[in-house]
Amino acid sequence: MRIAYVTETYPPEINGVALTAERTVRHLRGAGHEVQLIRPRHAGEAARRDADEWRCSGAPIPMYPELRFGWARRAALSALWRQTLPDLVHVVTPGPLGWAALRAARAEGIPASADFRTNFHAYCRHYGVGLLEPVVLRYLRRLHAMAECNFVPTQELARQLAGHGFGRLQVLGRGVDASLFSPERRDAALRHRWQAGPAARVMLYVGRLAAEKNADLALQTFERMSLCRPGLRMVVVGDGPLRTRLQRAHPQVHFAGMQTGPALARHYASADVFLFPSLTETFGNVTLEALASGLAVAAFDTGAAAAHIRDDVNGCLAAPGPASDAADAFLDAASRALNASEPDGLLRMEARLAATQADWGGVLRRFELQLRRVAFAGSVAARDAALA
């Protein structure tokens, strides 16, 4: 197939969506498909516009200045695709570039699919613009209505979106590289830098330090648990607008900054308990990475945790609810995870086992098959329309 793959985040940006997009493009090209990657050009990158890649113009996202949104006119995309018509257009992100790509696909009669990866409407509440939530939701609903298939990562999210009027939903989970994220990468020297001896327990948070990620709750939970567990350590991996404030408020916490690849894998494996306090994630790749690393995970019963964790079997779940109730529920889950966090304990072994069953190869092959179905259905519909 010839696939136009449209995304507004891609390496060198570092985030779950960007890294998943890169992995997906690699898989599709490796499977023999012709993939035209369309994404914003980053500062310092050469301009490019050919059959393999178009780096279009873009600008920083106001709430995420280190990320960019893409900008291309529908007419420009139509002209590009008339030169070599794709069998399918796949849109990863719902920004201006994604909107223009879906409009161009519709205008040219090209079948299209899209991912729903981020609850942007829910972010409004965390940035003081809650009144805009229905406006953003309405925009997302209109955008996804232009696609013949909309991929969502969990059944839970599919039910929520269906209740908001979204249609043509296809559940497709995420995978994890269980050879990279593995308990075997545990590093005694790294733990020594954290001032954590062999018997000490280390709690870990990995993610963007921003309001919608609820990182405050992870650190508050650690503080509460430290009162009755001397020697407990906390490590934070990631960066974001809240880092300076959080570092000042929690001087005893080790902030490791952004980590990638084997270094990130060592940070996971060298900890014992993983705290994932987010309530806005559609999935949360870090949850699978922590499970694959054999950590005792404490998370809310939503997203990847709801899909992959069995409470008190391979992780510990907290029920979402009002802020005060949620904080206590998360504390309870974290306490149970800590109590079950011995390195060779059954819960941590079960965590690793659960993650190894979510391999990227199977996920990407199912994605590829569904793209074929969308493209085939589109070609049949176009033929029938021509014969009518």
Compact summary:
Residues 14-179 form the Glycosyltransferase subfamily 4-like N-terminal domain. InterPro entries: Glyco_trans_4-like_N (IPR028098), Glycosyltransferase_grp1 (IPR050194). The protein is of the alpha/beta class and 388 residues long.
Structure commentary:
The protein is an alpha/beta fold and 388 residues long. It is 43% helix and 18% strand. The protein has 2 domains: 2-175 and 359-387, Rossmann fold, CATH 3.40.50.2000; 183-356, Glycogen Phosphorylase B (Rossmann fold), CATH 3.40.50. It has an 8-stranded mixed β-sheet with strand order 4-3-2-1-5-6-7-8, with helices on both faces. It has a 6-stranded parallel β-sheet with strand order 11-10-9-12-13-14, with helices on both faces. Helix 11 (285-292) links the parallel strand 12 and strand 13. Helix 11 (285-292) crosses helix 14. The model has no long low-confidence stretch (mean pLDDT 90). This is Glycosyltransferase family 1 protein. InterPro entries: Glyco_trans_4-like_N (IPR028098), Glycosyltransferase_grp1 (IPR050194). Residues 14-179 form the Glycosyltransferase subfamily 4-like N-terminal domain.
